[in-house]
UniProtKB/TrEMBL annotation:
Superkingdom as given in the UniProt entry: Bacteria
Species for this entry: Lactobacillus amylovorus
MF (Gene Ontology): DNA binding; transposase activity
Entry protein name: Transposase
InterPro entries with a match to the protein in the record: Hlx-hairpin-Hlx_DNA-bd_motif, Transp_IS110-like_N, Transpos_IS110, Transposase_20
Amino acid sequence: MLDDLKQVTKPQIIFEATGVYSRRLQAFLDMHELRYVMMNPLEAKRKTKDDLHQNKTDKLDALYLAKLQSEHPQRLAYVQSKEYQELMANNRIYEQASHDLITNRNRLHKAIQLTFPEIEHLMVNPRGKNYWSIVLRFPHPDIVLETKEADIIDFLKGLSGIGKKRANDIMQSLIRLAKVACPAVKKDSAHIRGLEMAINNILSAEEACQTALKEMTKLAPKRDLEILTSIPGIGENTALRIISELGDIRRFNNPSQLNAFVGVDPQVYESGNLTAHLSISKRGTAIGRKVLYLAINQIQSAKKAGNPSHIADYYEKRKRSSETASHKKAAIASIHKLLRTIFALIKNDQLYSYDVAKHNQRLLS
């Protein structure tokens, strides 16, 4: 392939971004410093829709992409630095591990209902490494009652932050719960193995999340992190994930480009004298939109806790403007405001100020 490309003067390369399947091609082109156009499949479909063809094959798709680039040259892809590529890779690991964590927590809860449901009352918050370690060691009440009290205490003392007195209290509660338990299965049931598998998956997913966050903390620009966490409601975790998905925000010329990159820019339909604004394009990063949606929820919670922001004010204004305005619609509109704020703060190297933001809003209104 490289030999073929070398025979062409200034080759124009265009392909669809198909996740991991296009990454090898992208890495190959980056390695040899060849510029290219990498299109979102939905955008490619929209821009080639005039060339309708019933038969869909890879060769035909390539032909229509080449025709599109020849007649209407598309913007070259921006090549992120290695640091930002690693940031995004770590965030994708975090996202997958978070999904696995939720899935296996649900599996564990269902398994416990069969093996030892009473153990969920052992601690105020039935989650965390200590709790899961206890359930892993004592998944069935019979196992608790067969174990010597001294052995239970020794096991509990080996857990993080549990001293002798605390271990004794937990042991007494564990035995009390085991005595009143009425499990649906025996201690040698296959459901015990399912429970153990769910806990091991939970512990593995938690470790993966923590490792990914540590790596993102090392890689993320410290000033950008400081700026994002100055916005009320956005903690370090969320800020790291936003930076990982958006990349270097300074590469955008205006907030509209940032909106389009994320995929929250509105679609516009024009026909004759009719111009209609449809739903968001969703052309960008779905995980990025998810993180920003989470950020809006956190910003709202911060205002309720006494840490206001003009973004939270805008959300409430959108909610009040229409009786039919859903949380989702107001949140998506607020994402625009959040992205505009992030863009301005990072471009101007400023920390967030509610007073300054309100003043700027009055000037714009």
